[in-house]
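Researcher: Please generate the 3D structure of the following complex. Treat every line as part of one assembly.
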Amino acid sequence: MADLTIPERIPINLVVNGERRALEVVPWTTLLDALRDRLELTGTKKGCDHGQCGACTVLIDGRRVNSCLTLAVMTDGAEITTIEGLARDGALHPLQQAFIDHDAFQCGYCTPGQICSAAGLLAEGRARDADEIRELMSGNLCRCGAYPNIVAAIEQAMSRS
Amino acid sequence: MNAYVGTSTSRVDGRAKVTGAAKYAGEFAADGLLHGFVVEATIARGRIARLDTSEALRVKGVVDVLTHAHRPPLADKDEAWKDEVAPEKGSPFRPLYDERIKFNGQPIALVVAEDWETAKFAATRVHVEYEQEGFATDLESERDKAEKVDQPHKPRGDAAGALTRAPVRHEADYVLPTEHHNPMELFATTAVWDGSGGLTVYDKTQGVQNVQKFLCSVFGKKPDEIRVISPYVGGAFGSGLRPQHQVVLATLAALALKRSVRVVLTRQQMYSLGYRPMTIERVALGAKPDGTLDAIAHEAIAVTSRYEDFSRNDTGWAEQLYKSPNSNFSHKLVDLDVSTPCDMRAPGAATGVCALECAMDELAVALKLDPVDLRLRCYSDRDQSEDLPYTSKQLRECYARGAEAFGWSRRNPAPRSMRDGKELVGWGMATGVWEALQMPVAVRIVLTANGHAEISCAASDIGTGTYTIVAQVAADALGLPIDNISVRLADSTLPQAPVEGGSWMAASSAHAVLRAAEEIREELARLAKAMPASPLADLDAANITLTDGMIASSDGRGAAVSIADVMRHSKLERIEREKLNQFAEDKSHARNTHSAVFAEVKIDEELGIIRVTRIVNAVAAGRILNTKTGRSQIMGGVVWGIGMALHEETVMDHRFGRIMNANIAEYHIPVNADVHDIDLIFVDEPDDRINRLGIKGLGEIGIVGVPAAIANAVYHATGKRIRRFPITLDKLLE
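Model: Done. Output below.
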């Protein structure tokens, strides 16, 4: 007889966009599903669920991470920033404004992941020119093909930060 | 007044998209929402002998498992399943209808549970036994079984005879693989149960009214019982034109369980939706030594399913581009045990023009002519298929402007003659062409006394910029700042619109806005003239215009009154007008967009790695409503062309009839590092014949020609002609 039991829920505490959130999750719940389905933070997108597209990128303790490859239980106690947490008091993050200015998206579905990934990239301080931005942003797919505008937007935000 | 049309206005939905506020189909919440997970067939053809759901049903949290043997009623006539863009011939696929398996990956059960993970887990506990039947999925081995479909273009003269006599001939097969759209958003539907038999269906679709009518006919519902909404669509590129499996399954489950249900397909499951069909393109060109053409023959052999005939115009594009006294075109289909193909960005043209433009490059080599020069020698000022002039055709200017921007005159024509350090450098070019289509669309405008206007229409914005151009056109037509315009789209209860596709939505929606705005203007003029001591009393309504929130004389002289004052005087809170715009039929001219694409590749000779370092795409597409979003659309098309040339291919294991790379890591699409310098030029193309604003549409033209330009550049760099796409490094090193 096959084992049909669902694992027990485990309590975890997260700080999401500066707010403390307590959750009970089964161990197989990804951070992505916890954000989207449990915390109703649907700004973080699911594009593949396999770490192949980058649409689910969030910042965990300031580092950019694919939230679909991260189990929620692994992030107990962590500080998580999603796209909903980037604007401050209604003022857009410089990257958000730069993405609008440069039309760095069309359908908008990869955009939260692109912006969170770019925020992580800026914090890393590794990209010095357009070629390096292209290389270091290649984990974030954009099927609309907005790449040159994404690079221009990141360059704008880099020059102003 | 053109304060906004033609400018680089930023997307009006930009803020929603960069803050995560924009909600897509699978993101709408509902009380007691259930989650469905699809179980798919693992054989290509046969029948389900046994489908055991008992174990899945015992998993805690599972509410039900729907199958063909356990589901609410579904329509039993093909007509009921034919949506607005279904192929004319055939019997559309019906999810969970019966035990027949028509393709690998076909949905055969839907596990519905209290949460998504439980549904996904329980789906692994559905046990299926099949009776398998013989099947075929390989176009090339089945090529001899191809059958002709209606010819897209009439033959002219005697192409076969002219080809035999032609002093210079080129003839070859070009093979374009199956491609999948892979929009970033997973196909998803949230069907919200209203408690009394009605449903609000949030669906990933390019046409909410198409889906609404389809669901009503499939489920026998009255029009007011189902409403379909899709405010944001995370890309579609054609894959959302027809109602897809998940919307049927979510609706089925919601009706069965009388609860709200969400169904999200996995990336892998999306590979059993439609796709660009693999096509073998045979092109034959016969020319005189001076570079004029005697004959063009183009035959396409493409995949379709056994249950529907899907075909698009692959052949015949030469009729628009190149003068030739003799021509012959044919399109054939091979029925295979696969799902039905569907439209994918520039369907027919992306593939057909790719083959034609590679063939033209080969002919240029044979004639020892510059590829641009050859195209100018054959340039056609008329559409030869119907012998019609064009409403406008600035293709010559595209060649000239593109060549100049690219530096084409510095090209050494000899293959392998140009280098950059260790890399071979190749320069290639190609022509692009697409149709300028327009459809009936209705728009409602509600102008309120505070000077705001709401524009509403059922049309979708799939990333194309419809929200923004509708706002621009409305702001100009009503003389209001764009911030005073709000746009509502993609709700089936809003005024009529067709599916968003074929590059027709810009012209179609813009002119509907103009018509409705005209009625608002006429009403305002009437009210303004009727005001006591009106400064506009003596003016003809036709000489009154709206500008800066004022109702004024068109010549700019004399007094004006504000819209707000007029409405207050007339004791009106709102003026509402809805207008359906239909374009007058005009068969006296051909309507097309054109482009000239120039590509530079750099190739590591030892490793075969190909980089597309530069693209110049010069496009003539009538009036550009928004230079910012318009450029983005063309850029997206160019990136798709890079993918088509070098990366994209859906690979089938024909022993199982199953796709081997049904994911977004092994199905390669261009990533940021694959895309370098892209220079886009909009060639001025005034066109007062095609429609009032001179709009032609931009969604497709950006991709057409790009794959051929890259393939031709690869030949120029290496001397190797790769006629089987995509051009991967193994083919270069062979």
